[in-house]
Specification:
This protein is an alpha+beta fold and about 350 residues long. The chain contains eight helices and 19 strands. The strands form three sheets. Strands 3, 4, 5, 6, 7, 8, 9, 10, 11, 12, 14, 17 and 19 form a 13-stranded mixed sheet that branches. The protein has a four-stranded antiparallel sheet with strand order 16-15-13-18, with no helix packed on it. A two-stranded antiparallel sheet has the order 1-2. The protein is globular. The structure holds zinc ion. Zinc ion binds near residues 62, 65 and 147.
């Protein structure tokens, strides 16, 4: 009896053909360094035997945000990816220049995530953005972009999404991040450019720049697997009871609490902690330890971002607070994400 042959054509990228049912590495050449050393974006393509969606997962668009690189490293070895439907494109380091320089930016100080969709004849950032859009993003139906907080800040694991369309909301729920912060699309961001191409995209961020944060990395790996399962690319996994019971909390908004005076701040509040309106959450002191001002919570909410640099000028952002619909949500959140749980 003839075995039914897969008719699925190979996936072509950068002159390479990846046959159905195989995985391979591809180098997307971007530019050369001053000494002519070629710089390429490393990509892995996992091209399933069977038809299904095409989804990319990218990290380090900001070169110093390395948690996502580790998330992709761990995800790519997961047994669930041995047999997938559709095509998974893994891009662990998009901003290869920034990554090698331990910097958020490109050599010209441009922010790649403000340079999308880019153009062929634009700046280095614009050219990289254009290439990434053309070769990867525009070929996908879905995308997950991995970030951390910017330097000297720390973020509670969270998804950023422009809520309001049902498909994105379902994707967000399948990721299962503890908090989802509704955020509008930013001009020049990958998220905005992808959306214009009809790609459903999520942004996950957690932890600090230039650090690995194990909790965030684990959540990121599970989140990506949840999305892959939701879009039908991998088979149902048996979830651990604790994971299955976790709820996703949708924040209705977020805002920063800023330093009322200059000095150094001290706070015993942690990421993920709930604060109530009017509560004193930090003290600002002078060099002799005299308290020059107290930072107070303006509204009840959850700390989703925190400055890890204790030195502040008046007006510097210290706490990033997510606000929920009602008190019950906050209480449920506390039960779900108790630090020791
Ligand atoms: Zn970032």
């Amino acid at each position: 009896m003839n075995k039914k042959k897969s008719l699925r054509p190979p996936f072509k990228l950068c002159g390479k053909e990846i046959a159905a049912g195989t995985r391979d590495f591809v180098e997307l050449e971007v530019a050369a360094l001053y000494d002519m050393t070629t710089i390429s974006i490393p990509i892995e393509v996992i091209h399933g035997k069977e038809e299904g969606p095409t989804l990319f997962i990218s990290a380090a668009i900001h070169g110093d945000e390395i948690n996502g690189v580790e998330i992709i490293k761990r995800l790519r070895r997961h047994s669930a990816l041995r047999s997938i439907k559709g095509t998974l494109i893994l891009v662990p380091i998009v901003n290869v220049f920034g990554y090698n320089a331990k910097s958020r930016y490109l050599p010209d100080r441009r922010d790649l995530n403000r340079s999308f969709p880019g153009s062929v004849k634009g700046s280095l950032a614009g050219r990289m953005a254009y290439l990434f859009m053309k070769e990867v993003v525009s070929r996908c139906q879905y995308g997950i972009d991995l970030h951390t907080a910017a330097i000297n800040r720390n973020n509670f694991p969270q998804l950023r999404a422009d809520m309001g369309d049902e498909a994105t909301e379902e994707l967000v729920s399948s990721f299962g991040a503890p908090v989802v912060v509704h955020s509008r699309l930013r001009d020049g961001s990958l998220r905005e450019a992808a959306r214009k191409e009809g790609v459903k995209i999520l942004l996950f961020e957690g932890g600090e720049a230039l650090r690995f944060d194990d909790k965030t990395i684990k959540m990121g790996v599970h989140g990506c697997l949840g999305v892959l399962e939701h879009v039908g690319m991998i088979r149902r996994r048996r979830k651990k009871a604790a994971e299955a019971n976790k709820r996703v909390f949708f924040a209705k908004g977020s805002s920063w609490i800023r330093a009322p005076k200059s000095g150094s701040y001290y706070s015993n509040k942690k990421l993920g902690e709930i604060i109530s309106k009017g509560e004193a959450i930090a003290e600002i002191t002078d060099p002799y330890g005299r308290v020059v001002d107290t930072v107070k919570a303006l509204q009840e909410g959850v700390i989703v971002g925190l400055s890890s640099l204790p030195l502040v000028n008046q007006g510097d952002a210290i706490f990033h607070i997510a606000y929920f619909e009602d008190k019950e949500d906050l209480e449920d959140f506390e039960d779900n994400y108790d630090e020791d749980a």
